[in-house]
Amino acid sequence: MPIDLVLVTGLSGSGKSIALTALEDLGYYCVDNLPPDLLDDFIALEQTHQVEKVAIAVDARSGSSLPRLPAQLQALKDGPGRQVRLTTLFLDADTDTLVRRFSETRRRHPLSLKPDDVQRGALVEAIEQERDMLADLREQALVLDTSLIRPAQLRSHIKRVLGTGHTSLTLVFESFAFKRGVPTDADFVFDARMLPNPHYDPVLRPMSGRDEPVASFLSEQNDVRRMEEDIARFLNDWLPKMAEDHRSYVTVAVGCTGGQHRSVYLVEQLVQRFAPKWTTHLRHREADTWPGANGH
């Protein structure tokens, strides 16, 4: 019988245990740190038991067997009858964030040489080594940058994106603030900082791009309309090609200075445009930082 397989991978400290918890809530049977050499037998066993949804966490702890995993996954996808529907979820975070998390918890990185080695130099070296080990898996994965989001936000985002079932291509539109860094999970990044800024209007400043007065102000700006049209034209031209190339997820990020007005408005408009054509999800990365956000 067909089985939905989510492979959860990524950097140590980036939130894989949180992702597995979210997938359990979605009804997946979850296994942490399954050796890749056991993957084929495990999937066959679960199909025999008529399990429909399985999530497996694999990371640098797999060691020397890790380089063989991409070929194994491709073989599962291309197997007889294509009985395995695969999604690879890669959790990432910037190095400074990972160093801080390991330092706060005093946990040992799996590639650290010493059990009590939490010094920055040793941690950075281990993190970069792990990035290299997992680079091939990252290439074809849905990448989520957890550097600036809380565990509850990560759980919610995973449930939104993976709770809709298998589709040919899913679009994730994300707004963000350049002052807090560019999301590492973005496939395309567009810069809205040159557009007219509602921040300088005292009435509009506390609001977000979701609020009608801000949306009305921005919709009247020629440059805002032009940028929206340019982004939409680009995506309409290239998304079909990406779908033909068997891409499962594409993340489109739009940024402005504070991630509150211009980027939020554009992302909201793009979701309305593309939702009729593709499975589409929305994320405002800086939502918790908006003044008086309260659900905006």
Features:
disordered C terminus, alpha/beta, 296 residues, 9 helices, 2 domains, Rossmann fold, five-stranded parallel β-sheet, four-stranded parallel β-sheet
In short:
By secondary structure, the protein is of the alpha/beta class. 39% of the residues lie in helices and 19% in strands.
Quick one: CATH superfamily of the largest domain? P-loop containing nucleotide triphosphate hydrolases
**Number of extended strands:** 9
Strand order of the largest sheet: 2-3-1-4-5
Low-confidence stretches: 292-296
> What overall form do the CA principal axes indicate?
globular
Please give the structural blueprint.
Blueprint: E1 3-10, H1 16-25, E2 29-32, H2 39-48, E3 53-57, H3 69-77, E4 84-92, H4 95-105, H5 120-139, E5 142-145, H6 151-162, E6 170-177, E7 188-191, H7 212-219, H8 222-244, E8 249-256, H9 262-274, E9 279-284
Parallel strand pairs: 1-3, 1-4, 2-3, 4-5, 6-8, 6-9, 7-8
Helix pairs in contact: 1-6, 4-5, 8-9
Describe the fold and architecture:
The protein has 9 helices and 9 strands. The chain has 296 residues and is α/β, with parallel strands linked by helices. The protein folds into 2 domains: 160 residues, 3-Layer(aba) Sandwich (Rossmann fold); 120 residues, no CATH class. It has a 5-stranded parallel beta sheet with strand order 2-3-1-4-5, with helices on both faces. A 4-stranded parallel beta sheet has the order 7-8-6-9, with helices on both faces. The radius of gyration is 21 Å and the shape is globular.
